[in-house]
Amino acid sequence: MTTSVTCRGLKLALAAGLTITGAAQAQTQVYKCTDAQGRVEFTDSNKKGCKVLDLPGYIPAPPARAVAPAPAPAARTNSPAGSAAAAAPSPSDFPRVDTSQQRARDNDRREILNEELRAEEQKLAEQRREFNNGEPPRNGNERNYAKYQERVAQMREDIGRTERNIEALRREIGNIR
Fold first, then answer.
1. What phi and psi values does residue 33 have, to the nearest 5 degrees?
2. Would residue 106 count as lying in a domain?
């Protein structure tokens, strides 16, 4: 009785595996191996006493071909010349932007980033004023001291986030050519 349940379980496991494998279009051979005690094992490595299974939907793997190693990526630099050398060559029909047009785009970008920087700096000043060096006035709904502490902690996080935004905007402005 145990043998039939085990075989039935193996058959169900094999059927499920074949269904999944077939759906994924497995690229390996499957071998059925029986050991001296009569236990059946399914594997992808050929051992003594194993037989190759003919699986429906099996697609043999294409032969391996030699692939040239990819060139190592160039080191990143902050200089415009270093980034131009690291960039891949453009196709001949790739649209080009003339220098004056690119300069105008960069100036527009710089101005937008400067406006964002001014807005973030104003926001930071307002947040610091409200924060009052870590002792903002309590609101009427903050009778519970834990609520007050949560609000103060949230204010600290907001100030830190705004400071990081300002740093990021300054870096971005500095990266414009």
1. -115, 135
2. yes
